[in-house]
Amino acid sequence: MTTMPLVPVEAAPPCDSRACVLETRGLTKSFGGLVAVNAVSLRFLERQTHAIIGPNGAGKSTLVNLLTAHLPPSGGRILCRNTDITGLPAHRMTGLGIGRSYQKTNLFPSFTCFENCRLAAQTRLPTSMRFFRPAARYREINRHAEAALDLCGLSARRDRVAGTMSYGEQRQLEIGMVLASGPEILVLDEPLAGMGREESERMVALLRGLAPHFTIILIEHDMDAVFSLAEVLTVMVNGTLLETGPVEQVRASVAVRDAYLGDGAEAY
Ligand SMILES: Nc1ncnc2c1ncn2[C@@H]1O[C@H](COP(=O)(O)OP(=O)(O)OP(=O)(O)O)[C@@H](O)[C@H]1O
């Protein structure tokens, strides 16, 4: 098996004093004749919440799948801390500090919350801990799992079987599992999908608590959540970037209102 070398790439000029942790340059994905993501160039800064919105079929999930190496791009590049990571396999993403959650619930329903987090925590250790004795390794994994449960607000549910919890708590646990893998960048694909009002509020509060510590790339249709969490907003339509920038600037864009937010944007 050949391993792609990680090639340092000349940094783009900074537009913020925070470091750019992830970047796309002309990223493109075609499915046959359909260009789902079309020459998208974006910069994600450390400890910044960057929401990506757009109508159904705009290419948001495809973009997430490219960023997390679940799909190979048809063109363009992905840089992580100025290193070209285009074409790396998905299992290398955890080591690069990139963790993702999925649109659909993705946990082990017959395992407890702790066991789910412990499984996720194991993905971060194999190389860095391989010289430790098994007992020390397990202690370290358990420590990460407990910390993740605490961060996602489920310490009190530690020994509860995941499948017996409410839908909202299961989605919270999925965030915990992402955290247990030790990421710096959280790529969250519709974390509020299917939630009622109270559950959504709890999830928004959880994400708000995480925001100062992580780069969050948030795909979300719930505009109240987007506007209360995001610092930067990108709008995609038909695979292309319609607008990207500080939330207030993008909200004020006539093109964005016409294409996506519509008159209802005044309500936000
Ligand atoms: N594996 C695939 N094969 C073929 N076409 C695909 C595939 N995945 C996505 N597409 C198409 O690419 C386009 C973008 O889809 P994508 O799921 O990325 O949009 P989205 O913005 O995430 O939509 P939604 O908000 O509904 O999740 C759509 O036209 C979709 O049908």
From TrEMBL:
<keyword id="KW-0067">ATP-binding</keyword>
<keyword id="KW-0813">Transport</keyword>
<feature type="domain" description="ABC transporter">
    <location>
        <begin position="22"/>
        <end position="263"/>
    </location>
</feature>
<keyword id="KW-0547">Nucleotide-binding</keyword>
<dbReference type="Pfam" id="PF00005">
    <property type="entry name" value="ABC_tran"/>
</dbReference>
<dbReference type="InterPro" id="IPR051120">
    <property type="entry name" value="ABC_AA/LPS_Transport"/>
</dbReference>
<dbReference type="InterPro" id="IPR003593">
    <property type="entry name" value="AAA+_ATPase"/>
</dbReference>
<dbReference type="InterPro" id="IPR003439">
    <property type="entry name" value="ABC_transporter-like_ATP-bd"/>
</dbReference>
<dbReference type="GO" id="GO:0005886">
    <property type="term" value="C:plasma membrane"/>
</dbReference>
<dbReference type="GO" id="GO:0005524">
    <property type="term" value="F:ATP binding"/>
</dbReference>
<dbReference type="InterPro" id="IPR027417">
    <property type="entry name" value="P-loop_NTPase"/>
</dbReference>
<protein>
    <submittedName>
        <fullName>Amino acid/amide ABC transporter ATP-binding protein 1, HAAT family</fullName>
    </submittedName>
</protein>
<dbReference type="GO" id="GO:0016887">
    <property type="term" value="F:ATP hydrolysis activity"/>
</dbReference>
